[in-house]
Amino acid sequence: MTKIAVELKHVYLTFNSKIGTVEVLKDINLQIPQNKSTALIGPSGSGKSSLLMLIGGLQRATKGEIQALGQNLEQLDENELTKFRGENLGVVFQAFHLIPTMTALENVSIPLDISGAKEVGSRAKAALISVNLGHRLHHYPSQLSGGEQQRVALARAVITQPSLILADEPTGNLDQEAGNTVMQMLFDQKEVHGSTLIVVTHSLELAELCDQTIVLRDGSIISANRGEFTGFMKKEK
Amino acid sequence: MKLNFFKIARRELRGGLKDFQVLILCVALGAFAISTIGSIKRSIEAGLEHQSSEILGGDAVVRLTYRFATDEELNFLKSNSIALSEVTDFRSMAAVLKGDEVTDSTLIQVKGIDQYYPLYGKLKILPAQTRGNVLSKTDGSYGAIVARSLLDRLDIALYDHIRVGNSLFQIRGIIDTEPDAGSNAFSYAPRVIVLNAALKYSGLLAPGSMFETEYRMKLKSLKNLERIREEVSIAFDNRGLRWRDITNPSPSLERFVSRLTSFLLVMALAGLAVGGVGVALTVTSYLEKKRSAIAILKTSGATEFLIFFTYLSVTSFFALIGLILGSIIGSFTIILVGPVAFSNIPLPVRFDFYLEPILQSLYYGFCISLIFAIWPLGRMLGANVATLLSQATELPKFYPSLKYQILVITITLFMVSNFVILSPQPSLSSWAFGGIIISLIMFATVAQLLRFLARLLVKLKFISKKVQFKMAFSSISGPNSETTLTMLAIGLGLSALSTIGQIDYNLRSNINNELSQRSPAFFFIDIQKTQLDEFVVNALNINTVSETSTAPMLRGIISKINGLPASEVAGDHWALSGDRGVSYAQQPPKHNSVIEGSWWSEDYAGEPLISFAKTEADEIGLRIGDKITLNVLGRDFTGTISNFREVNFASMQINFLMIFDTHSLKSIPHSYIATVYLNEDYESKLLRTTANKFPNVTAIPIRQLLTRVSENLETLAIITRWSSSITILTGIIVLIGVAINTEKYRIYEASILKTLGATNTVILQSFTLRSAIIGIGAGFFAIIFGGIASWGIVEFVMNGTFRFDLLSSIIIILMGLTINLIIGLLFSRKPLRMEAASILRKGD
Question: CA B528, B533, B539 angle in degrees (round to 5)?
């Protein structure tokens, strides 16, 4: 029987704004199997990134239950959530989000520093070498290209060998070639560490590489299988 | 329609106020300080001008030393005035008697007046009464009106008696207002006013005693002032008179006020310079937002000149708002607060709205705003369109192109030279300006050093394994670091405080320790020759008297040098200001060594020879063989310099600028000066026995005077500390500006760290550490720069020995730490509170 890494039950996310209440996610119910890759797709504003943030405990749901790796995230306080992220999660963002005052090596070291791991320097160095950045260890983010920055972010996301890797449009800011390299590495790392991967993407090619696809529209899941997804994307186009 | 900078600037002004709040506050504070200090100065000047006749005591005054005017001189003065008042002034002792025994005594400043006093203003007495017969002889004794401090010091009451010299006076009133008090209002010795007639029998105005007489003239018309001055100088030629009139009634007071305010003005300019950092910060962050607008203007064919003037106009507009606000508020603050703040200061102050300080603050404020705005503007304009459009890319160079550098340097030089030329103390001003500029450069440099050190330290294992340390050190060393701006913002203010603290400590420790330990307990003056031997025996009979020394003393005015008027040769050297003590001797004093020329033989009886103090001789430009004419008691004595002595006037021993050979001055009426060294516990006994046996002798208590000097220095230090607080306050506003501008980076970092598993505690620790390190760094370097500056001042300007004050240094470091920590932590709340997703998703 397939183990479940993430499960959401009747999850809602709403915001109050000047124009009234905005429902970002409505009655989300889904299961994401462990050690598999899942693509979250949908048009802009469909709520896919918000869903990823909820799964990562980076945002609180308005209503509903979120189970990730056996933990009910809604029952954890801020510190417990932070600890959960540090121990189990690796996140890759579209805009890389490296700390600009730190070199590539320092950026990659942070999760290990936080967890109090040993041999931080050598492990961080190895992680950067594994993403072909052995020659950029002491460069600041502003001195790296977009593709290189995303590879640093990737190395940072996987350095603690997380059970769950979340990637929010990781190739969105990259050209085709750099995007392909990053995606290949992302899948490689998933395989190496046996992690569960959830990717938010607009890329059909990328979605097709995943084991499962979830399609969102207007805050609701409209499909959770490959055939419907392909048809949907074609229709959207 | 053709583009013009005015049109674009007008559009850019819309909604710009929010971006320029820090700039407006910074320049407003600087302008406030300059305008306040300028207004105080102008108010005192106006007060002195308005009450010049009262302060002087007449329209013109002729002052003589040790003598009264002759009948011929009096007739001359009377013929030139509609009223003439004779006033004597000298130091003496007020003694309290029990029977015939003196129980207590203290130094006083006696003013002898006549029936015409005061020619201008009113002498107000408490309890309220007209002067009438208050001072005249009733029930066997003359009356005296005294400063309240005398009653406190001698623990006596109204209508008690005091003995001054040989005469008894009954205290019949307390001085409420003395119109001609001038700088004497700050004197240690309490004022006692009596009738000149009463002093006749006191024995205090005997030949050789030290007193001054003033002949105060009320003129028919002030138009005649210059003519009368010339006639007096001809009629009194070689008679040792000093002339003063309402055009400059109290030069010493005016000089003091002018020096103090020009020093405070420099401090205010330091505040304005720190405000300049705020200007640079605001302009930089404003232009960052305008990068794409500037790029589009460039691509649309706008010239660099047009863009430069557009954004300089926008900046200048907001700077002017701040400057006008600050300078006007400063002026009005003085009008409102001045009368209360100055109520206990006996100075004639006329608080009013003066334009000059406002214009002055606008001028300096605008220059500083230009200097600090042109630099970042030049940098931005130097970038190409591609760089400008790429928002994430930092500007390639720290320096703008050469033309902007030249423009900045030109404005700086223009402003500095202007200030220095207009300053009453050009030398102090140029040093202070140099100090400000060097400090700013040094703080920018050490900020880089601190960043470099942080970069090295972050590699150390014990630092890198703690994420808090790693975060703190890498944010200090990395791009977008607030280190440089923070150092510039608070460094200068802390340096100023450090310098003041070190100088204050050195001066006071010098006075309280060294001087008070090696100084005599008393200087005794007005000892008559017939009393000298008995005086010494009396002193030596007191327990613990370890040493006494005596010397003959006369006072005279240096009137000519080599036959030329002394002021033409020596300018305004202190040796020429008023009368100086001179002595005669057969042998050089033990504590003075002759370092050039030769001393005369003991039996020398030829033409007058002079031994002159070496340092002062060098300052005036005197050489061996030069002739000095000294006016003593209205007679000119010309002597030839035969040698130079090394004299340390700070040694608290009997020292003279000039010593004549014995033969030349011995026959002139004179008195003696003596110093007595003894234990503090026996001082009052010596004072009592001296007052009993020698009523005419005046004792100057050195310990009390040193305490008074120490107190005055403390007051000055407090004033300067307050004035430097404007620099600190401006620095704090700049820091807040820095914190506002860098908050987005902290929020961003915090969000990433939260995503990576860092708790709020860890993030807060990292922010705290960062603020603490930069704050301590600023304090540490402020101590170094302040220490160097104060060392230079103490060692080379004051000729003292510098000692490092650890306590004030610790306070400076704590201040740097506290200021930066509080602001850092205040602006940490948002980064800690923000939900990571809302920040990180924005970037996507």
Answer: 100
**Mean pLDDT value across residues A206-223:** 88
Pairwise CA distance, residues A62 & A50, whole Å: 12
Provide mean pLDDT across the span B634-663: 88
- Examine the pLDDT at B324 and tell me if it is beyond 90: yes
CB contact under 8 A, A101 and B393: no
Q: Which residues of A touch B837 (CB under 8 A)?
A: 50, 53, 58-59
Spatial CB neighbours of B804, under 8 Å, sequence gap ≥ 6: B502, B787
Q: Helix, strand or coil for residue B458?
A: coil
- The CA distance from B658 to B641, in Å, is 9
How far apart (Å, rounded) are the C-alpha atoms in residues B566 and B629?
9
Q: What is the Cα–Cα distance from A61 to A56, expressed in whole angstroms? A: 11
Inspect the interface and report whether the beta carbons of A58 and B759 lie closer than 8 Å. Answer: no
Return the residue of B nearest to A77 by Cα.
B759
Angle ∠(B404,B410,B411) on CA atoms, nearest 5: 95
What is the predicted pLDDT for the residue at B819?
A: 92
DSSP 8-class letter at A76: S
Residues of B in contact with A169 (CB under 8 A): 844
Q: Provide the H-helix boundaries in B167-250.
A: 196-199, 225-235
Task: Name B151's Cβ contacts closer than 8 Å, sequence gap at least 6.
Answer: B157, B158, B171, B174
Neighbours of B445 (CB within 10 A): 13
Q: What is the pLDDT of residue A6?
A: 92
A126 Cβ contact list (under 8 Å, min separation 6): none
Does B480 sit within 8 Å of A101, measured CB to CB? yes
Helix (H), strand (E), coil (C) string for B306-328:
HHHHHHHHHHHHHHHHHHHHHHH
Helices B71-79 and B225-235 pack at an angle, to 10 degrees, of 170
The string over B686-699, giving b where at least 16 C-beta atoms fall within 10 Å of a residue's C-beta and e elsewhere, is: bbbbbbbebbbbbb
**Closest by alpha carbon to B835, among A81, A18, A181, A114?**
A81
Tell me the mean pLDDT in the region B500-515: 81
* Inter-chain residue contact A97 with B467, CB threshold 8 Å: no
Name which of A59, A114, A156 to mutate to probe chain B: the one with the most chain B Cβ atoms within 10 A of its Cβ. A114
pLDDT band at B2 (very low <50, low <70, confident <90, very high): low
Regarding an ipTM greater than 0.85, the answer is no
Q: Write the single-letter amino acid at A72.
A: N
Chain A residues near residue B836 by CB distance under 8 angstroms? 58
Best residue of B465, B468, B484, B755 to probe chain A, by most A CBs closer than 10 Å: B755
**CA distances in angstroms from B304 to B5, B7, B300, B313, B383, listed in the order given:** 11, 16, 12, 14, 11
Contact (Cβ atoms closer than 8 angstroms) between residue B25 and residue B725:
no
For residue range B516-526, list pLDDT tens digits in order.
Answer: 677 888 889 88
Residue type, B674: A
Q: Taking residues B674-680, report their average pLDDT.
A: 88
Pick from A95, A94, A84: nearest CA to A164: A84
Give B784's DSSP letter. Answer: H
Two tokens at B358? 């406002």
Gap from B466 CA to chain A (nearest CA, Å)? 6
Strand partners, B88: B112, B213
pLDDT tens-digit map of B471-505: 899 889 887 788 888 888 888 888 888 988 898 88
How much is the mean pLDDT over chain B? 86
B658-661/A71-72 β-pairing: unpaired
Q: Report pTM.
A: 0.76
Please provide the distance, in angstroms rounded to a whole number, between the alpha carbons at the two ends of chain B: 40
Which of A44, A102, A122 would you mutate first to test chain B, the one with the most B CBs within 10 A?
Answer: A102
